Amino acid sequence: MSIITIERKVLEKNDEIARQNRADFQQHGIFAFNVVSSPGAGKTSILERTLEHIGQELRIAVIEGDVQTDFDARRVARYKVPVVQIVTNGGCHLEARLVRDALAGIELAGLEILIIENVGNLVCPANYDLGEAMKVVVLSTTEGDDKPLKYPGMFLNASVLIINKIDLIPYVNCDLAALRSNALQINPALRVFETSCTTLAGIPEWCDWLKSKVSAKP
Amino acid sequence: MSIITIERKVLEKNDEIARQNRADFQQHGIFAFNVVSSPGAGKTSILERTLEHIGQELRIAVIEGDVQTDFDARRVARYKVPVVQIVTNGGCHLEARLVRDALAGIELAGLEILIIENVGNLVCPANYDLGEAMKVVVLSTTEGDDKPLKYPGMFLNASVLIINKIDLIPYVNCDLAALRSNALQINPALRVFETSCTTLAGIPEWCDWLKSKVSAKP
Fold first, then answer.
1. Which residues in chain A are closer than 8 Å to B171, comparing Cβ atoms?
2. pTM, rounded to two decimals
């Protein structure tokens, strides 16, 4: 028995539970997405701006994944939406089983959007299906425009790229056109948004797109 | 046979090879350190500024670890130091075996410093000993001051913290005193440097400390 076999079994088991999650989301007409990024790219800030913008209008719940602490769940809870914190205790990614356990604490009936914020890690979460409709990868301009080429797995597996902290462009070494081009070279189908959680640039466009995903539900 | 057992065996095998690497470094009087951070925190930029500052004075070699591309090795090679690129092809951390293979391409005799730049990942590389004398964790101010508490493993296992991009402090939501205090709460023994690769603030202090590690060699 090789390690490869063990890993494949772990992924197969994960995919099986992800399918159960996905079936639940579809049954209840919930648009669920999995937000991934490096630590500090601004996942939670985008979530806060999103809840400010459309949190009254749509029924949204949040699952927070963190290696340690419940800081993010506390930030989100201020917006009066259901939120469950998963602490992985050193684990580098969320798995479908952890999400399934968290779902037990959320009323799915009537829910329109479920946001799953993954652990900050641009590598490992790419390989784990949680049952989401899509992965949304957030990349901060401060990380540099070469990152899609250096960490291609995540950009290949995501459907949406949010380029965040565009207000910092004047101060950092990041060519926005090159970043966009590098990301689309890895995955030409990526839907790209450019946002700043400070100036709120791009937040309305992102939220309009989110609303369109809800109204497009069968 | 459980997965836990397999993982323990993988780590035991890694530690065994790490011991061989460490013995080689000690035999040749090489100060080897393992640079870890999130993607885009500035590992390679710090390396470039370090080579500019003391690359003529000390005999330095570099091992670059990346998920994909040889961009970083090409950046470092401009400084005319020996450099070997390891591409992990999706792997989220370096292992001692990969470093051992890379060492075959580096002349160890006469070398004073070996810098191993790990894959950009604030979680997984914390658990893998490469044979280094110490881990140096780089955290960018743009990532926010809460990161040591949210990703404690890396800060616990590191001996040095470089807080980078301090020139961006006026534009980002990061309290430098809080960052330092959070890091020292996790690991009171951390030696902390504050740097900017743009203004070069802190680079001389970091390089002086590096030189002291070389002169302290038996």
1. 167-168, 171
2. 0.95
